[in-house]
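## retry 2 of 3
previous attempt timed out at serialization; input unchanged, resubmitting
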Amino acid sequence: MAQKQQKLKPLKAKAFVDKQREEAVAKKKYWLRLTRACNNNCLFCLDKEMQNGQMVPLKEVLSELKKGRRQNFKQVILSGGEPTIHPEFLAIVNEARKNGFDRIQVITNGRMFSYEDFLRQAIAGGVNEITFSLHGHNEKLHDLQTGIKGSFCQAIKALQNALSFPGLIVNVDIVINKINCRYLSDILRFYIDLGVREFDLLQVVPFGSAWKNRRRLFYDINKALPHLQKAFSLAREKNALIWTNRLPPIYLEKFEELIQHPDKLYDEIRGRNDMFVKFIKKGEMMECRGERCKHCFLAGFCEDLEILREKGEARAKNIPACLRKKVAVSEKHSIKMGNVKNICDFLKFFIDFRYFLKGSECQKCIFNINCEGMRCNYIRQHGFKSLKPIKK
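## retry succeeded, writing output
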């Protein structure tokens, strides 16, 4: 039985889960790409545009490991493409441990770990957490999305191999899309029954292969919401730890503990730093702006960035009338274009003063038209129910 299952079995209090979430977000993680290639061909691959079939040279990888330790990172995440197909994968794992990383995590489609000896050597070398990317609960559903016949059978064998190693942390990533959203609770139940106790549910986003295959992948979240909520409820019932990734918070009413921590936006913004820098300094519009925005969790951030550049200043949104007696008013806060040295300066302001949410009950409030809701972090802590509609 995997360590993660043993660790989560005694979950009894929401406070304990919340603490785990906060600690996980706060932990510094050093992402290290090993390949620009993959042995799957996923319809929604976010990394597709970065793949050229090549392996990152061993010398470059080792240099990056040393760089990560100099920056005092203790956890390294080996990713790709598919990291396990790097011919020096096992040597890289050994070097990561020798360099002092106490947590070595692998993000993988799992197929190479179906070879038990390979998995055993990886664990002996220092791998102590494996995240499997699995998008269905049967061969037909999973292989349709990965584009490789037989990938499900290999991945399941690998998952079962991994779950048999005591002390190894095992979790599963699932990309939610039009093909699998209606089966999400069945998928979770299948992996929970196998022994998995931690899941990251990633909303499909309009980049990489996903945009090319958008007619097959993008779906109406409102229509699919009953399926999503059924899955969320199952996770609660089974004491499974669930994360959501890039899923708009407005769809998590009554499941506010699943709202992605706003600080995760830093990783997303840094990943597109060059695009945002060009907009801030030269006014070059982000190349993805347009039709993609209605499918993108960053749409609100980009809209506010445009306000900043157009007006030279962005002001804090108003605290809703229903909470002004409980929360300090923030309207006096603002940020000027000249004070934005890098994109993260504005992101911090956005998270603190402009990343606001509204709940379904807000429609009943007499101030609904002009009200902008409440800070995301406040909603995460107090729930959408904290927004009390003011009626005549």
